[in-house]
Amino acid sequence: MTGLDLIVSFVSAARHASFARAARELGLSPSAVAKNIARLEAQLGMRLFHRTTRQVTLSQEGEDIYARCQRILEDVESLEAAATDARSGTRGTLRIDMPLTYGRQVVLPVLMNLMARHPELKIDARFSDHVVDIVKEGLDAAVRIGPLADSSLVGREFDQQFICTYASRAYLARHGEPGSPAELTKHTCVLFRMPSSGRDRPWQFCSGKRNFSLMPESGMRLGDGEALIQAAAAGLGLVQTPTYLAEHEVKRGRLVEILQKYRPSPLPISLVYPSHRHIPLRVRALADALAERGSPRKRYMRMTASGRVLP
Question: Model-level pTM?
Fold first, then answer.
């Protein structure tokens, strides 16, 4: 029986608040778990649990030792994972979650290229606009748009999302171009209805250093970003959308950006993964590939309002 075995029994019992549940998890008898914990208490010279006939709870000293033992096991897990990576290279299954449209248009081509470079790598990609718990779902990583709210995740920014306002040339020929957000009341706007909440997404603008939002009047609401672009290209109204959605139609000359000087501040786009885990080679390979591809928003920002790409 090693010291690590004693720690494993203690951490499992503390996590489940039960010797019996720890025994089932570890494939041991409850008495074996109890003996392991008793040995650890004897070695440390302190009582780790308060025991009653109905439950076991951590003592004050036990809570401190529990946190330290968790870190020990995480370090051991990371060491084992690093050794496996060193032997096997970039292989295994990369499980990743990403926003629906951005993932399909921007991340998926990177994943396909990554598989071509690493034939033993497999991909399990989920496309959803709902934020999921990547640890609970057993995922390696996720792509997130916006500031990170979960402190248990580490993020590596590789792009930025710009939100811009667009119109077709035909629409502008008929109705003219608004000079400021205040003039949107004189125009037809097509709104994006967010599938996650069922609400219309407000339009975002920036004047000087002040960011502000407004909700234009609209006779058309669409719950799909690509449908929004199609409606704008058909001249049905003004739209506000991320640049990666509009880029193709801008290059074709079907859409032009308007209200450029009111463009809102960009949002970071990051690859996130659990902070307490060893970073597998497959995740590091994806992070490097995303960084290497270059930012599509930098290419896009070279476009003029006329849709021409500058040399």
Answer: 0.64
